[in-house]
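ok so I'm stuck.
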Amino acid sequence: MSVTTHTPSEGVALRKRIANSSVVRIGRYVVMRLLTLFTTVVIGVYLTILIANMGGYVDQIIKGQIRDTITQSIANSPTGRNMDPETRRILIEEQIALEEKRRGLDTPIAIRNIRHLTNALQLDLGRAFNITSDSGSKQVRLILLERLPATLLLMGTSQLLLFFSSVFIALNLSRNYGSFWDKLVIALSPSSAVPSWFYGIFLILIFAAGFKMLPFGGMVDSPPPSNTFDYAISVLKHLLLPGSALLLSSFFLSVYNYRTFFLIYSSEDYVDMARAKGLHPKDIERRYILRPTLPNIITNFSLLIIGLWTGALFTETVFLWPGLGRTLFQAVGLYDTPIIVGSTIIYAYLLAMTVFMLDFMYAAVDPRVKIGS
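replied:
not stuck anymore, here's the structure
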């Protein structure tokens, strides 16, 4: 039997080769991953543009609206009424052609879709067709930024409370498997099949219409209180019902999911070995149960954070909450394609960046994960 030995210089060279190969591997992985994610974003946004425009059907609706608006405007004006029919018809057609050109409807739909895609990828979100900001601007960027704080307040409060309470309660349930509370959570988990807006309607009927304890909707009293403290209390009162609806709709299923993960890892052989060695239960939880579940917890938390951008379409609409979800719901009803595409492209970029960063976070918390291997 022969033993291979290395001189110090050979050892240094070997370490350098290993380090260089690791850098090359990670670099190759990063480039391929970014290209894959960017391709996915392009495909997703292009499909969103096609669906939002319904293959050109929305164009026909918009052209019809333009024709009706201009025809009625000219026909009802004093100047238009005094024109002879032929002159009025020519003027109407000219105005319609100018408006269609201004909106780009005179360009073939395939070219416009590519143009929309290129602008969206560059975050040039353009102007909305029908929706305006509170300041009267039609810039999609300003509209979305104006609605963002309300959504972050509602979704951030409810979803962060949901996440941390679910993890804490699920960990306690996993310690007491088969207890009354454990069975109760399992029994109530199907209640999460009910959407949040449905819970919202019931909460409105009970606490707003019935007991008259809380407001029906909106974000603040009208007129808003001038005092900062009173304003905060008013916002809090308006936040309670929609926030509770979002929390109730996902709470029991979220607890059940985390509880299941904790139970799976707590039944592993290495956990039994740690118990046999007499390790403290909290040390076992921290080192052998919580740590292996970190990738799943980090993934859920990351997706929760970027999910704040989309808001809650129907819940915000039911409660008249002035957030991104309600704005997107209005955009769908008004065929406001720039709003839909603008919201989608930002979410797509956030999702792609999150998926990219998660790979590195997995490697940081789990030594078994190697980037690019």
